[in-house]
Design a protein that fits this description.
Largest sheet: 5 strands, mixed
Number of helices: 10
Order of helices and strands: EHEHHEEEEHEHEHEEHHEEEHH
Helix content: 25-40%
Bound molecules: ligand DPM
Strand content: 15-25%
Strand order of the largest sheet: 2-1-3-10-4
């Protein structure tokens, strides 16, 4: 954030991206009455390549690259992304400064108007279900081997139009979170359970990205941090990073917190879902009083050391006496 106190917010032009960005901006404005915001719209590679399945484009940061370049070039101060579109490794000078409270992370079935009231199991064999997600295809093919899955691209408005205005698709699959944010809850025929379809890493949460050294913006957006979402999505992204597949490998998760326990179920599939590997893990988030004291002590110690080190370096640099010796 510059000295003039205007927060420049970069966003994709799609309606969903704008809705998400406006949500963050409104939250920040209601918490900081004098905040001034300028919204900068940009198109990303993911918005420009509409004829190919995303997993075939070979790019990992399809929806974030241009926005991140603008952040690095100091043209914008903050970018709001769907966390699930953020690659596991960010450019060196950028950081996720806040993860907002997660919407329902599951997937929804949206039926063609002629099929409203039906479920996927009610559709006749050979019916076509639209999704470009390898993750959804792998899991649903296994459950419904008689259905056909076909890629459908474009933003949410375009997809719903493609579903409604022709008879190519009997149903499409979309994230509940995106549909809800657009205010289209009524289009959701039903929600897939996590037994039927595990969701994408980070699905339903927003990741707010800033420059790593822009303390003013970081402090501002940290007001939107949601503790449970952060814990769950950090675990999910660690899983993504370990597997390293990006969007070309079907991988999926389900995480939840009960009291002080974090649970995560993760899975990897081959493309038709005939092979899969599931693993569930659990870890305690409980920190007892003694451990808390130790952590506080260590942090204080590190901070003191850091301040001492920085001042010592300054001293060395500025002092003629010292430069004679070092
Ligand atoms: C990613 C995937 C998709 C998006 C892959 C996946 C879906 C692609 C498709 C990584 N990003 O989920 O397995 O269906 O063709 C995307 C959506 C949202 C963020 C739309 C959606 C909204 C939900 C959210 C596209 N990115 O998944 O229906 O903010 O989590």
């Amino acid at each position: 954030m510059g000295d003039n106190n205007i927060l420049r917010v970069g966003t994709r032009k799609s309606e969903l991206a704008m809705v998400q960005t406006n949500w963050v901006v409104n939250q920040l404005k209601s918490l900081n009455k004098s905040l001034e915001v300028e919204i900068v719209q940009m198109a990303t590679i993911g918005d420009k390549i509409l004829d190919k399945s995303l997993s075939k484009t070979g790019e990992k940061s399809l929806f974030t690259k241009e926005l991140e370049d603008a952040l690095i070039a100091n043209q914008v101060d903050l970018v709001v992304n769907s966390l699930k579109d953020m690659p596991s490794t960010l450019p060196p000078n950028l950081t996720i400064s806040a993860v907002s409270r997660r919407e329902d992370p599951r997937d929804a079935v949206i039926m063609h108007p002629d099929n409203v009231g039906k479920r996927l199991e009610d559709l006749p064999p050979g019916s076509i279900v639209g999704t470009s997600s390898l993750r959804r295809v792998a899991q649903l093919k296994k459950l419904f081997p008689d259905l056909k899955f076909k890629s459908i691209r474009g933003n949410l408005n375009t997809r719903l139009r493609k579903l409604d205005d022709a008879d190519n698709f009997s149903a499409i699959i979309l994230a509940v979170a995106g549909v809800k944010r657009m205010g289209w809850n009524a289009r959701i025929s039903y929600t897939l359970t996590t037994d039927e379809c595990l969701y994408a890493i980070g699905q339903g949460a927003l990741g707010i990205e800033t420059r790593a050294d822009d303390m003013k913006s970081i402090k501002l957006v940290s007001q939107l941090h949601d503790k449970d979402t952060v814990i769950r999505t950090v675990a999910e992204r660690a899983f993504l990073k370990t597997l390293g597949g990006g969007c070309s490998v079907p991988q999926a998760v389900h995480s939840w917190i009960i009291e002080d326990e974090l649970y995560m179920r993760g899975a990897v599939f081959n493309l038709d879902g005939s092979k899969s590997l599931y693993e569930t893990m659990q870890t305690s988030l409980f920190v007892n009083e003694d451990d808390k004291k130790l952590v506080t002590f260590l942090l204080d110690f590190l901070l003191t050391f850091l301040v001492f080190y920085i001042n010592f370096k300054k001293l060395v640099k500025n002092s003629y006496l010292f430069t004679c010796f070092f």
